[in-house]
Amino acid sequence: MRQLIAGNWKMNGESASLAEVEALACWAASSAPPADILICPPHTLVARAVVIANGRIGIGGQDCHPDKSGAFTGDISAEMLQDAGASAVIVGHSERRQYHGETDALVASKARAAWRAGLVAVICLGETEDQRLAGQAFRIVADQVAASVPQDAIGMTTAIAYEPVWAIGTGRTPAAQDITEMHAHIRECLGSVRRQLRVLYGGSVKPDNARQILDLPNVDGALVGGASLRALDFQTIVSVARPGS
Ligand code: PGA
Hints:
This protein is of the alpha/beta class. It is 39% helix and 16% strand.
């Protein structure tokens, strides 16, 4: 399986940051990267990033509303992202779950909205530190897979991002064996029909630990926050992806 390296800029980036998209797209066009590349800038930059990327890398949104349109001030629909040229959207990021009270059911409906608009849904899930310490990580993640990944998800339209909440933005990552075991567990939970979904790892992926993480069995790519903001760091991560077909 060809790995996917996705960058999540979160609430970072103004016009000047488009230079990073330009640099990354130029590099991707000239160096045959071993993985698919997706950058998810803030929504204000999506349309311009699409023009700059010019098909050399994918551009995505960071969230979408379940509905196509309507009286939902401040929200953005999957159709709007698609109209702006996006090819994917992140749904259910832990920061959305935590700060916006998003439930598994809502996340599933956002994934369906992404498909309706022809976008790939990158569905995020992962346990908190308390849950891991209490020995509940596997059960929590199984519950999240069951309730936030629709049964009819297929590899063409959906990727999972396993992001332990305690590893996001902290510089801490799980032990290699814990990542391997959790990814195998997620694949198990996905069942035979959804087996071909890419399962990305996210949480403090950096240039200096990317190779070790991307080499692990059942890791089909990475969702990168902080280290996606600079093209050079992100390129370093993409370039150590495991080559695949
Ligand atoms: P981080 O963020 O790489 O900065 O830890 C990852 C994410 O939140 O997707």
